């Protein structure tokens, strides 16, 4: 069964300014009227608030999207500032997977300090690369690390990456 906006509006109240979804009715001993809805659960290393509706778990930001627009997002819901607990309406947007990846944090295993830049052992130079339409594109090899970073930054602008892309944790 597909969840509807009407069902969501019967169960919850959402405040777009704070991003908090609260229970409109008491549904269980944990889901009491007036309490913030749902809890925290993990999805492949990232954490999001989730709510249980009719025996199924939903990511809270997807329910908020349904609440606000009366339809489920077409693709993924991106948290613009990267904070997965910040469900204010101004921080959520419906994007493709590729667009969502263009607003990613710097990976924890990154050693250069900049996304898309790494040391190439064989060439003994800094390599810069970027993904465009799902394909990795080499931007070049550089003696100076800052030149590689500059090439990557220019490519992010050229290919429409979000300004938050590559931010620190």
Write out key terms for the chains shown.
169 residues; alpha+beta; Homing Intron 3 (I-Ppo) Encoded Endonuclease, Chain A; GCC-box Binding Domain; 2 domains; 3-stranded antiparallel sheet; elongated
What does this structure look like?
There is one protein chain. With 169 residues, the chain is an alpha+beta fold. The protein folds into 2 domains: 91 residues, Homing Intron 3 (I-Ppo) Encoded Endonuclease, Chain A, CATH 3.90.75; 54 residues, GCC-box Binding Domain (2-Layer Sandwich), CATH 3.30.730. The strands form 4 sheets. It has a 3-stranded antiparallel beta sheet. The mean pLDDT is 89.
Describe what is shown at a glance.
It is built from 4 helices and 10 strands, in the order αβββββαββαβββα. With 169 residues, it is an alpha+beta fold.
């Amino acid at each position: 069964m597909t969840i509807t906006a009407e069902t969501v509006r019967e169960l919850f109240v959402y405040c777009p300014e704070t991003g908090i979804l609260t229970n409109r009715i008491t549904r269980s001993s944990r889901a009491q009227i007036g309490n913030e809805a749902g809890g925290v659960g993990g999805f492949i290393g990232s954490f999001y608030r989730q709510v249980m509706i009719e025996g199924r778990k939903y990511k809270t930001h997807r329910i908020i999207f349904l609440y606000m627009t009366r339809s489920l997002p077409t693709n993924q819901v991106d948290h613009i500032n990267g904070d997965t607990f910040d469900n204010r309406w101004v921080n959520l947007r419906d994007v493709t997977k590729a667009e969502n990846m263009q607003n990613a944090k710097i990976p924890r295993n990154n050693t250069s300090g900049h996304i898309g830049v790494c040391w190439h052992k064989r060439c003994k130079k800094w390599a810069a690369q970027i993904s465009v339409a799902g394909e990795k594109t080499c931007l070049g090899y550089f003696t100076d690390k800052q030149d590689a970073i500059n090439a990557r930054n220019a490519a992010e602008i050229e290919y429409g990456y979000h300004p938050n892309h590559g931010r620190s944790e």
